[in-house]
Amino acid sequence: MVEVRGVHKSFGALEVLRGVDLTVGAGHVTAVLGPSGSGKSTLLRCVNHLERADRGYVAVDGELIGYRRGRGVLHELRERQILRQRAAIGFVFQNFHLFPHLTALENVVEAPRFALRRPAAEVEAEARALLDRVGLADKADVHPRRLSGGQQQRVAIARALALRPKVLLFDEPTSALDPELVGEVLDVIRDLAAAGTTMVVVTHEIGFAREVADTVVFMDGGRVVESGPPAQVLDAPRHERTRAFLDKVL
Ligand code: ADP
Ligand code: MG
């Protein structure tokens, strides 16, 4: 479902991604671990073309992201086409990024209603079902400032799902939460995994990665240092850098 091949990305002289490969099968969950600054967020942003890779490519469901091939060369897509592709790639941010002036329901309705121009009644019914799915049926008319961080993040997940994405990307979805609110968000992600949602989750929650991920990827210095099943990467890491990182976070 997600194919990242040889992706390089620099910001000025700073080489942030140094040739990253990643493959996520349909219905699979990949957890990405790694120290701060290792390029995890940049990698996610390259997947949905919020950042343009300098080299390499990303494909989702067989479709090249951000480009089309023409006469043997790549042409960058127009903004409108990139937005269409991005709609199929849900993104959940560390800091929720909800629209503060809209209610929970309006946040979920916004994109399918106004970006995809789907009918109001249908979109609203689906949005209510999504809020119910993340345990917030009773918060539909509440604004984000009156919700806890965990509730806000669950609205953000419902909002991402409203576009019926092929894949969901999570960038440290629980890092901004008080410890007692982490569980309710991880529970929602766990349910999505059980329902066969394709996901890439950047997280420091090692226990969660062990339990939910099919594949764990450890990044350091802009490279994938190692990847494999959780039991291998987390319990029997092959690389000293992975071991050192796990020693720190466990
Ligand atoms: P991580 O998510 O693993 O902490 P990031 O992908 O956010 O890492 O960042 C990797 C490196 O790239 C960091 O040194 C960060 O400061 C730098 N960086 C990220 N985005 C930008 C940007 N837009 N401009 C300049 N430097 C950036
Ligand atoms: Mg980050």
UniProtKB/TrEMBL annotation:
Keywords in alphabetical order: ATP-binding, Cell membrane, Membrane, Nucleotide-binding, Transport
- GO MF, one annotated term: ATP binding
The UniProt entry, under InterPro entries, shows:
AAA+_ATPase (IPR003593), ABC_ATPase_HisP-typ (IPR030679), ABC_transporter-like_ATP-bd (IPR003439), ABC_transporter-like_CS (IPR017871), MetN_ABC_transporter-like (IPR050086), P-loop_NTPase (IPR027417)
Membrane topology of the entry: Peripheral membrane protein
What is its subcellular localisation?
Answer: Cell membrane
Q: Which SUPFAM superfamilies match?
A: P-loop containing nucleoside triphosphate hydrolases
Which parts form a coiled-coil structure per UniProt?
none
SMART domains recorded: AAA (SM00382)
Q: Which domain of life is it from?
A: Bacteria
Q: ABC transporter domain location, by residue? A: 2-246
User: Cross-referenced Gene3D superfamilies, in alphabetical order?
Assistant: P-loop containing nucleotide triphosphate hydrolases (3.40.50.300)
Q: What is this protein called?
A: Amino acid ABC transporter ATP-binding protein
Species the sequence originates in: Streptomonospora nanhaiensis
